[in-house]
User: Fold these one by one.
Assistant:
Number 1:
Amino acid sequence: MKDKFFYLPSSPFLGKNMAQNAIAVENLSFSWQTNTPILDACSFNIPQGEFWMLLGANGSGKSTLLKLLAGLLEAEEGQIDTIQPLGFVFQNPDRQLVMPTVGADIAFGLVRENLTYRETLARVREALEAVGLLDLQRRPIYALSGGQKQRIAIAGEIARQCRVLILDEPTALLDPDTQIELVRQVRTLVKERNLTALWVTHRLNELDYCDGAFLLEGGKIRDRGDPQRLKKRLKKEEK
Ligand SMILES: Nc1ncnc2c1ncn2[C@@H]1O[C@H](COP(=O)(O)OP(=O)(O)OP(=O)(O)O)[C@@H](O)[C@H]1O
Ligand SMILES: [Mg+2]
């Protein structure tokens, strides 16, 4: 199945925690195998309009948590409320971009919406403008750099008018300069368009660009708050 075609859960009502939160998670539990919970009554909120990062050791359950938020997995227990539509950006854009050219790929993500050709074109162009890549509309996907591919993947979600962006280690395959460009771009998109983003990373220098951060450990959020404080804590623990 192509990653583009996941059905996202609809949120017919927003729970009591949703007044200023774009994402509200309460007592979420999930196990891949019985008796080894990956998420264990995990709770957290992300305020609307903010850019938050999720940290945690390899295998701590970050990707699992994002898949639960996106409705790609079903929780065993607990409650997830998110503003919709929600867009997902993968670590490897080659899993996400499926059409031969940039414009076709973004348009392809809109097929469910039954737009006219003109409306589709307007959405594609507006989304490409948002990520500063309007020039690449006709470019074949294979001729893009890694950073450009990630920005096109983000443009696809913007074209779908996603209000929440979930990004799973989007800079893992990028060089340091491109990495910082991408994180800056996402920050700008969040602030200019009043979006909400949750970004998973292992790279502590990215914490300089977010509003807040979480640390996932033992199936729960063990620390949350000021990204600089978390950065210091994790740097110390790395030593
Ligand atoms: N499809 C799956 N089937 C069974 N177990 C899985 C599956 N996907 C992940 N797991 C297990 O769940 C745990 C959490 O994995 P997950 O990928 O969510 O961690 P992560 O925090 O994203 O790690 P990383 O930093 O390496 O990306 C790991 O022990 C992993 O082996
Ligand atoms: Mg992961």
Note: Strands lie at 21-33, 36-47, 51-55, 77-82, 86-89, 164-168, 196-200, 212-217, 220-225.
Number 2:
Amino acid sequence: MNALPASRMDCLVVGGGPAGLVAATNLARYGRQACVVDRGETRGQRPRHPRRGPGVPGAQPGSRLLERILRQAEAAGVVVCRGVVETLARDGLGFVAEVDGVLVRARCVLIATGAIEPQTVACPLPLRRGHPRVWLHAAAAPAPVVDTMQAIRFARVPVDLAVALGARRAGDGHLEVDIRQSTCVPGLYAAGDVVAGLSEVAVAMAEAAVAATAIHRALPPNRH
Ligand SMILES: Cc1cc2nc3c(=O)[nH]c(=O)nc-3n(C[C@H](O)[C@H](O)[C@H](O)COP(=O)(O)OP(=O)(O)OC[C@H]3O[C@@H](n4cnc5c(N)ncnc54)[C@H](O)[C@@H]3O)c2cc1C
């Protein structure tokens, strides 16, 4: 993996799944310096048979698709780094991020942090007369008494970095964006599973292309 850029970049892309890599590739084609920082847990590797992907007849491992997208990004000049963006703050008109203890600066940021695998959790229902009681055992807390419980499956969406800057989340927990994939924070964009919509590779890539174009137009003009 590459080293983090020392100087202020045009766009820091948080997350190297299909959304992050395609956005960075498009930015590079617009002549913008983009760096992807990725923790390495993309769900893009998961689809074993991405039948929902356009132009993919039959089964194709998701990892092969992602590998190609990564190769394309690097060929376009995108810097892809393995790491975790731990914090994100405003820095004048731009942003400063802490990546594994190192500070990096960018004019714009794209949040492409995806979603985390759905988990099943047991949720207590309120006590009602006549229902059998169930003890829920929590490791660090006294076990509460409830009369019944329900199992709920939900995907957690990592939005904390954006929300800390003032970005809004929708009722379902995803980040709110406008038609240009812009959050309500100037310079902060989001694409892919982290925003509400269909969780599909093609959708993530389309949103990424829209975001890259909006970021390019928001930056000072260049020759493109
Ligand atoms: C089992 C399964 C089957 C699927 N099947 C299909 C299918 O057939 N067809 C289809 O189109 N789609 C399918 N999908 C959905 C598809 O995988 C997702 O829509 C797609 O991966 C979303 O891309 P993304 O870039 O938004 O997020 P992701 O691919 O999840 O990538 C996000 C990346 O951001 C990284 N990250 C998060 N936080 C940070 C941080 N703070 N710092 C650095 N990096 C960070 C994560 O580690 C991850 O690598 C499937 C998903 C699953 C789980």
Note: The CA atoms of residues 27 and 216 lie 7 Å apart.
Number 3:
Amino acid sequence: MNCERCGIDASLTHRDVDGFAYYLCGACVRGWDAVRSVSTDSTDDARSPAR
Ligand SMILES: [Zn+2]
């Protein structure tokens, strides 16, 4: 099977994101998790007003 993100042929890990099923390779799963933590942080940032 091919990774749905980078397209390499590898053994994939299932990820369920916003109700959609994605099949990602190990590297992309790690990148995906990192991206999701960053978005959580920026959402938190937007919620704290500077003034
Ligand atoms: Zn990949």
Note: The CA atoms of residues 43 and 49 lie 12 Å apart.
